Amino acid sequence: MTKKLIKNVNLVLTDRIVNNGSLLFGADSQQIEKVASYQLSAAEADEVIDGQGGYLTPGLIDIHIHGGGGHDAMEATPEALDKISQVLAAHGVTGFLATTMTMPEADIKAALDNIQQVKASSGTSGAAVLGTHLEGPFISPDYIGAQDGNSRLEPEVELLENYFDIIKLVTLAPERSGAITLIKELKKRNIIASAGHSAATYEDFQAAAAAGMDHFTHLYNAMTGLHHRKPGLVGAAFDSEATVELIVDLIHHHQAVDRFTIKAKGVDKVILVSDGMEATGLSDGEYELGGQKVIVEAGAARLESGVLAGSVLTLDKALRNLLEITDLSVPEIVKMATLNPARKLGLEHKLAQLRAGYQADLVLFDQDFTVVKTFIRGKEFLN
User: Fold this and answer.
1) Active site residue 204
2) For domain 3-57+353-381, which architecture applies?
3) Which of 275, 284, 316, 366 is catalytic?
4) Binding site: which residues?
5) Assigned fold of 60-345
6) Closest by alpha carbon to 18, among 49, 51, 60?
7) What is this structure's pTM?
8) Alpha-helical regions (H) of 253-338
9) Which residues bind substrate (predicted)?
10) Cα(262)–Cα(282) distance, rounded to whole angstroms?
């Protein structure tokens, strides 16, 4: 049985950093075997990796990612998902929800069929597909964002019936006819119902929350904003125990808003996401999202109209951004991209912690928090 030892590394636990520690894991067992505050013996391992004073964290988890490396989940091919998984792994992501778009129903079903088949078969060569995030088509015509308004549908369960095994999260507008019924059905099946692309009022969300909605998709973007007499969805997010997604690319919102959101909601209620599209990992230029032309320039992805169209953010960059613009601790920042999404997906019992018996999804960062190595189920990802 092949065992690997990472030594001379700062171990990022959920509540503290263990300086100059070491960690032993099995490439065959796919599990973490020992976590130590000292240097474990090299004799225990078949391979020793010198962390050189960097940081070791659990693998990052992205619950809102459309594409990367020139490919999109809506292409509905195993090759597309595999390329996306490789781009993500190169940036420290070890698990993700392949995220769909509001497009014709046949296209959505083709993408879901593909995700289902890939997850059930040999998987991907990079980050693991943990399921899918269905972003639309149950959205508001008033808050389309970069989605296809002509492909909207009113909330109904029929579209989802053959895919309950892979759907982990559904973004929908809770004010639409049929939304409450769908939210209740999702709740029964332990699927996250998330408010997004929505014209909902504060009161609309209260009704949805009572039915089981407990998450907000890319908070602030494509939803009703905060007004002191009309709190809207943003106000509802802060006046609830729901979790919120935050895109910390310093483009979707001002850095002061990122700081305020984390302070107001609390670290445990914030999940960092990329909302990355096919240009992620590539240079500026012209790309596509949901059948629409996207221009990427200076790190921002926009439709020709100027509307933001996802991002080219990676989660490791989001970590570095927060290290720069906040006074949060490293464990607090890392938690928002590891334990928090794992907990939301009900996977915190086996993922996202440096503990013996947990899955060996690991990221070795240098001292500047640039990814050095990514390990997925104990095996090193080689880009």
Assistant:
1) no
2) Roll (2.30)
3) 275
4) 135, 146, 197, 218, 221-222, 229, 252, 308-310
5) TIM Barrel (3.20.20)
6) 51
7) 0.97
8) 255-265, 315-325, 330-335
9) 146, 221-222, 229, 252, 308-310
10) 29
